[in-house]
Amino acid sequence: MSACLKFDTKKAKEEGHQEEGSLTKTTKMDCVSLPPLSKFAICGGTHGNEMTGIHLLRHLQKHKVEKAGSVSITTVLSNPRAIDACKRYIDTDLNRCFTHTLLRTPITDSSPYELQRAHELNAIVGPKGSEEAVDLICDLHNTTANMGLCVIFNSTDLMALHIYKYIKSKITSVPVRAIDTREPISENYSLDSVGKYGFSFEVGPQPNGVLRADVFNVMKEAVDLTIEWIQQFNSGVTFDGGEAETYCPVNKVDYPRDPTTNEITAAIHPELQDNDFKPLQPGDPIFQSFAGETVKHEGKGLHPVFINECAYYEKRTAFILAEKITVTFPSICVKKDCGV
Ligand SMILES: [Zn+2]
Question: The AstE/AspA barrel-sandwich hybrid domain covers which part of the protein (predicted)?
Fold first, then answer.
């Protein structure tokens, strides 16, 4: 993945954000004014066996949560067939289908179900990159890794950064951290990239197909805080900028494998298991072979995330190594002349 950068001033200019003022000395004078968020979409069940988002979405739909102050709320169960089957996906991973290239690929009867569904979702909450797209998408996910609440976004997304900062200041029951994808929007394959702004919540640990109340409570609190933040933003509150720590993925690590059969020959080492985000130094144990031998980390010191994530066995990923970086970002406030 690409090197980590500070807030992308070029993108901000292209999007009509204020140009003046230092981005490193953030004061209210440097406030970036952005249009109000009038359309907000909450998506769940993008992966059909991640139960928290599915049940939280059904709960919101049952209680007809469709508006909060000035913002209209759309709730979307993203992958109904996978939800019915309680599987991550039917034909292919839906949350890898939202690049511009795939969304422009003509659909036929033989197209994978998830690609067809991606086109339907692009019509509901997009089209991606257009003026008609919803202002903000929040996509709800679970991980089997011990990651607490993670907000996953590209840190060039000022809205996502500020919402992350707000949620982190409010939620105390679990660690709240940010994973910084750094992907250009056109190549970003996830559903939340279809909105003008977007992010995912990833809450765990929770096994696939299982619903835990503690994880549900964290997800619900994070969604409620997001709605609260949007209402405050739209009503004219200025949110101060500053600095945020994010984790930028730089490398994937596969399990040791038998070169002939490709079967894995080791499991995550007990000293690494459940220690997501804890710095991993050269020489630290990462795998334990089935013969009882320890495999040690050989690269530079980084932070492991998604350790032993169930869904990543098929992606040949035992864990992802991330670099901790500091992102500096300006204050934001609503553009006054836009109305809501
Ligand atoms: Zn997921």
Answer: 245-324
241 and 258 fall within a common domain: no
Could you tell me if residue 314 is inside a domain?
A: yes
What's the whole-model pTM score? 0.90
CA of 45 to the centre of ligand 1 (A): 8
Q: Return per-residue pLDDT of the chain as tens, 340 residues.
A: 333 333 433 344 334 333 333 344 444 457 999 999 999 999 999 999 999 999 999 999 999 889 888 899 999 999 999 999 999 999 999 999 999 999 999 999 999 999 999 999 999 999 999 999 999 999 999 999 999 999 999 999 999 999 999 999 999 999 999 999 987 777 889 999 999 999 999 999 999 999 999 999 999 999 999 999 999 999 999 999 999 999 999 999 999 999 999 999 999 999 999 999 999 999 999 999 999 999 999 989 999 999 999 999 999 999 999 999 999 999 999 998 754 4
Q: Ligand 1 centre and the CA of 93: distance in Å?
A: 9
> Are both 162 and 269 inside the same structural domain?
no
Geometric angle at alpha carbon 222, from 244 and 196, rounded to 5°: 70
Joined tokens for residue 274:
């459940």
Residue 103 in any domain: the answer is yes
Residues with C-beta atoms within 5 A of ion ligand 1: 47, 50, 141
Kindly give the distance from the C-alpha atom of residue 22 to the centroid of ligand 1, in angstroms, as a whole number: 37
CA trace torsion 49, 194, 101, 113 (10° rounding)? 30
